[in-house]
Amino acid sequence: MSHDVACVGLTILDVLGRPVERIPDGGNVDFIDEIRLTVAGTAAGTAIDCAKLGLKTLAVGAVGEDEKGDFVVDTYRRFGVETWAVKRTKDAPTSATILNVRPNGDRPALHVRGASDHMWIDDKDVPPICDGQFVHMGGTGLLNRFDGPPTAAFLAKAKAAGCTVTFDLIAPTPNTMDIVGPCLPHIDYFMPSMEEAEIISGRSDPAEIAAFFRDAGATTCIFKWGAKGSYLSTPDGHERVPAQRFDVTDTTGCGDAYCAGFIAGLKQGWEPVKACRLGTAAAGLVSTGLGSDAGIIDLDHTIEVMESYPLLD
Ligand SMILES: Nc1ncnc2c1ncn2[C@@H]1O[C@H](COP(=O)(O)OP(=O)(O)OP(=O)(O)O)[C@@H](O)[C@H]1O
Ligand SMILES: [Mg+2]
């Protein structure tokens, strides 16, 4: 196999600053502690974290022919992520977000949708993209051209090629089932946040939410649940996997890191619940610093954290 995991979808340059208490009056300036640039988004953030966790990672997405796209590609290369499947498009700028992280961790965001809406995969690229153990599809909801039938067709091919398919989404509405529904039969691990899963299903009880998506075809559901941890529903049963205690600075990208840790756990040959615990540790580490790539050092350190940090209730 040419890689362990292909992370496909939303690719964003994040510009983050903290702490931001307010936009200064008029054209004035306020001074803050920290500003960072990171490669983020439901696919790209996971790709960076997968690489940090030692997985041979292929990034699949679209960026513009601009300075932001250069930064994304350079950063991938620095982390050892394979970039041949990151397309450069003239049609749009690289998708980007300005995140103003408040002292309480809230992060009001300003987003340009950009190139991720133009992402596509050429037929000839499908076999090499699927030449790995995992396909992680991330960012359904903000991939205008690829959302819905093209994503479902791609995931069907990934399954046919023998890949394990993990899936995360973003920006759901009550109509999101229109685009997610056709994908669910091709998904092994459906991994939105609990809040997102509630919005899409229109249900509020975790077991009923999971039943909704499993009835629609997803084999296993994992709902990321903030400080409550996560909720795992497999064909054999369900359980809450508690979060761990960290000094939380900024939770940007925690969900993406959770997916990376989970995939790295499966790669170890672990059962889903233990892989969820590695996802929990990876997500917690990301919460300790500013930006979606903070905190994680490598696989051994993340396993150590998984085994030693106390659980939240
Ligand atoms: N305050 C916290 N303390 C410890 N762990 C946390 C905290 N908040 C989040 N986490 C961990 O991060 C994981 C993902 O967070 P969350 O549920 O917010 O996902 P998400 O909404 O998909 O995030 P994202 O904004 O990155 O898309 C949780 O499942 C949990 O393990
Ligand atoms: Mg998320």
Structure class: alpha/beta
Oligomer, anyone? single chain
Number of helices: 10
Helix content: 25-40%
Report strand order across the widest sheet. 5-4-1-8-9-10-11-12-13
**Largest sheet descriptor:** 9 strands, mixed
> What is the chain-wise order of helices and strands?
EEEHEHEEEHEHEHEHHEEEHHH
What does this 3D model show about the protein?
Strand 8, helix 4 and strand 9 (164-169) form a beta-alpha-beta unit. Helix 1 packs across helix 8 (254-267), helix 8 packs antiparallel against helix 9 and helix 9 (272-286) packs across helix 10 (299-308). The protein has 313 residues and is α/β, with parallel strands linked by helices. It contains 10 helices and 13 strands. It has a 9-stranded mixed sheet, with helices on both faces. It has a 4-stranded mixed sheet with strand order 3-2-6-7. The radius of gyration is 18 Å and the shape is globular. The protein binds adenosine-5'-triphosphate and magnesium ion. Magnesium ion (MG) is lined by residues 168, 193, 255. Magnesium ion binds next to loops.
Note the topology.
Layout: E1 3-9, E2 12-18, E3 34-40, H1 44-52, E4 57-64, H2 67-78, E5 82-89, E6 96-100, E7 109-112, H3 126-129, E8 132-140, H4 149-160, E9 164-169, H5 177-180, E10 189-190, H6 194-201, H7 206-215, E11 220-224, E12 230-234, E13 237-241, H8 254-267, H9 272-286, H10 299-308
Parallel strand pairs: 1-4, 1-8, 2-6, 4-5, 8-9, 9-10, 10-11
Antiparallel strand pairs: 2-3, 6-7, 11-12, 12-13
Helix pairs in contact: 1-8, 6-7, 8-9, 9-10
The structure holds adenosine-5'-triphosphate and magnesium ion.
Magnesium ion is lined by residues 168, 193, 255.
